[in-house]
Amino acid sequence: MANFFLDNKDIQYHLGHPLMKKIVELKERNFADKEKYDYAPIDFEDTIDNYKKVLEIIGEICGDVIAPNAESVDQEGPQVVNDRVVYARGTAENHEMLTKAGVYGISLPRKWGGLNFSMVPYVMSCELVSRADAGFGNIWGLQDCAETLHEFASDEINDEYLPLINKGATCAMDLTEPDAGSDLQAVMLKAHYDEKAGTWLLNGVKRFITNGDGDIALVLARSEEGTTDARGLSLFVYDKKHYAVKVRRIEHKLGIIGSPTCELVFTNAPARLVGDRKMGLIRYVMGLMNSARLGVGAQSTGISEAAYREALKYAHERRQFGKAIIEFPAISEMLTDMRAKVHASRAMLYETTRYVDMTKAYFHLSKERKLEKEERDEMKYYGRLADAYTPMLKLFASEYANQVAYDALQIHGGSGYMKDYPVERLVRDARITNIYEGTSQLQVVAAIRGITTGVYVENIRKYEQDAYAPELQAQYNMLKGMREQLEKAVDFVMHTEGSTSEFIDFHARRLVEMAGHVVLGHLLLRQASDETCGCEEYRISAVTYIKSGKAKNAAHYDYILSNGPDEIGMYKMD
User: Fold this and answer.
1) What is the predicted pLDDT for the residue at 532?
2) Per-position b or e across 500-526, b if 16+ CB within 10 A of its CB
3) Are the CB atoms for 293 and 391 separated by under 8 Å?
């Protein structure tokens, strides 16, 4: 029997971060629920123990049910029957097992049937499920919709819908349309209030909707007649029980086959307004998208973990020229580099999640009482970090998922190209991660603000104050030099004569990657210096990653300095 939580000491390590104590105290309100619910924790240690027990349950289901079902789900896929989605047999079984285990909605408050877990264990569950089957990871991860309702919907709406999540109700976020992909302000699905019926009615078409036939859907629609921009959009919740939305078709995709990507037709679909009118895209969907990007970071890390393990296993089993191929330097170097990228992705994933956790905890606390100045300052501080780190996480984790999956197939050779091995599915599944929920190029657009405002460099300087193992002093010095090089590159791009916003955009990818290599290098160095890890592989990952990052940053730095404002015209295409 496999357990995807217990067999991963790296993911367990991240539950022990010092900030977890503050996160738990804020989330549990000093453990006030222990008087109301017999399953509520009594202190910090009890809370972490609860996290581990639930993650063990999820890890066991992932290893014994979801992962074994992944190949059949990939072959069978979902179908449209009578305008409804019918899951593949394995997908339905996965969902039934997790529902019976009572682990849906674990981050929701206990009064709505949740376990009141922080975001860290919830995101860990997303990683575990995605390692087992990235397609099913989408269905599991869409619980983020419940978080959005919890944050912005009325008590009346939450009282009706949130208890359903724990009972297995699935979710969807209906955002994109045939003419509105990444540009969501172009959404035109119409919402009008019917005075006679006393409800909002939705009409129009949505496309590329993940799990589009979910039981509870958050729908972005144009509520203000005559508008064409973001200010005319509102967010609505639609209940599948009304049967006013038909699934026109399921897209035939390259990967994540088990996740039904639907085209939907709304015909006078009754819906309820979430929050305030005109704030649908400006506030609510932006929050939803940030959570979705955190989810893609978890999905990407799960795919990377699965691909690395498949490659490592094959390299031990496959023999050529009288020995296992892992004994060849070319292969062992690839695996070492792959493992470093997995560790780096995971370190960034949970660093970002902790920042999000702190921000959300203070947000919910602010709805109960006025925050003290120190609390407001701390909420603002972690909010800035969450906003800066989320796009960087999505960028790096998704790109690394593609690179690790690519190398895993390469290690398999011709066998990996065949459907006899799961690695070809992992390659296909990985490919979408740097496209949906905002392409890598759009993540750079978001992350460059962390460069121009100095958020990344400010946090990097704080990392430099951490204590590192003496034997890693050389790597610490490398990172410090890389930070200084980054600052010089930023100064050149922003302040050199003739610099424009277009010039900054031209070099944005290089600057963000330079910052990312320093940030991820520090996270790995910190982990490698932690005596509680007690493992040589983290030191190797830190050394490997920092050496590689130093070389890449040097190349970016040279390219930036050799392509000033007067040079970029040659790259424009007619």
Assistant:
1) 79
2) eeebbebbbbbbbbbbbbbbbbbbbbb
3) yes
Active-site choice (437, 464, 471, 531) = 437
Q: Are 215 and 242 in contact (CB under 8 A)?
A: no
- Reported as a single tens digit per residue, the pLDDT across 109-141 is 999 999 999 999 999 999 999 999 999 999 999
Q: What is the SS3 assignment for 113?
A: coil
Strands 190-194 vs 245-250: parallel, antiparallel or unpaired: unpaired
347, 323 contact by CB (below 8 A): no
Look at residue 468 and give its three-state secondary structure: coil
CA distance 56 to 41: 17
Rounded to whole angstroms, how far apart are CA atoms 300 and 210? Answer: 16
Give SS3 for 171. strand
Q: How many CB atoms lie within 10 A of CB 292?
A: 25
What is the residue-wise DSSP string for 513-561?
Answer: HHHHHHHHHHHHHHHHH-TTT--HHHHHHHHHHHHHHHHHHHHHHHHHH
pLDDT in tens, 469-527: 999 999 999 999 999 999 999 999 999 999 999 999 999 999 999 999 999 999 999 99
Q: Do residues 504 and 452 touch, judged by C-beta distance below 8 A?
A: yes
Q: Report the length, in residues, of the chain.
A: 574
Of the candidates 125, 206, 204, the one whose C-alpha atom is nearest the C-alpha of residue 172 is: 206
**437 given a catalytic annotation:** yes
- DSSP-assigned letter for residue 103: -
Q: Specify the pTM.
A: 0.97
Nearest 5 degrees, angle CA 365-CA 367-CA 369?
70
- Distance of alpha carbon 476 from its chain centroid, rounded? 28
Q: Which residues have a Cβ under 8 Å from the Cβ of 69 and sit 6 or more positions away?
A: 89, 90, 91, 93, 94, 133
The mean pLDDT value for 407-416 works out to 98
Identify residue 395 by its one-letter amino acid code.
L
pLDDT in tens, 154-167: 999 999 999 999 99
Q: Cα separations (Å) of 203 from 207, 251, 265, 334?
A: 13, 21, 8, 52
Radius of gyration of the chain (CA): 24
Residue 554: per-residue pLDDT = 98
Question: Is residue 352 very low, low, confident or very high in pLDDT (cuts 50, 70, 90)?
Answer: very high
- Taking alpha carbons only, the member of 553, 487, 485 closest to residue 520 is 553
Query: Rounded mean pLDDT of 447-460?
Result: 98
Helix 455-463 and helix 473-495: axis angle, to 10°? 160
What is the per-residue pLDDT for 77?
98
Distance in angstroms (rounded) separating the CA atoms of residues 210 and 256: 10
